[in-house]
């Protein structure tokens, strides 16, 4: 079954400006600017004349098109949240015997992981553009990733996790690694 017309609205908060030009979205806020190209999606995106919300419309859409409609609206909401509050991922180092040593660069561009399962090899993980990595001051064995783009921050966390996978051992027994312990927008009290 095809639906003739379906539309969703995304509210634009005060202090944030959104520009929509041929399905390219540019969101500007107090923390910076995010740009996303959604030209591959067959939808109509219009900023209303009042300037307070964006209308995303699908004409003659199937169920998959309606699911894509919600996905596009969520992407826009994530961009708005990123330029107003930003995103923070906290990762914890878990080890049983060999303590994992993590060294973060001065500018937070990359980190080096040493002594994982007692290995001599140094693992270097580069952060994606716009993501800053740091060690936690209050909690031992914790890494904090901060950025505006949720996709970049989450992918950087996944790259760190992937670099510390246990090979050729029983993963039920060897639980060593670096895992995401907390994720979400940066709280106001920090």
Automatic annotation (TrEMBL):
Keyword field contains Ribonucleoprotein: yes
Domain Large ribosomal subunit protein uL6 alpha-beta, residue spans: 12-86, 98-177
Transmembrane segments: none
Parts forming coiled coils: none
UniProt keyword Ribonucleoprotein, yes or no: yes
Domain of life: Eukaryota
Record-level GO BP terms: cytoplasmic translation
Cellular component GO terms held in the UniProt record: cytosolic large ribosomal subunit
Pfam families: Ribosomal_L6 (PF00347)
UniProt keyword terms in alphabetical order: Ribonucleoprotein, Ribosomal protein
Gene3D superfamilies, per the entry: Ribosomal protein L6, alpha-beta domain (3.90.930.12)
Protein family according to the UniProt entry: Belongs to the universal ribosomal protein uL6 family.
Name the UniProt record assigns to this protein: Large ribosomal subunit protein uL6 alpha-beta domain-containing protein
Organism from which the protein derives: Galdieria partita
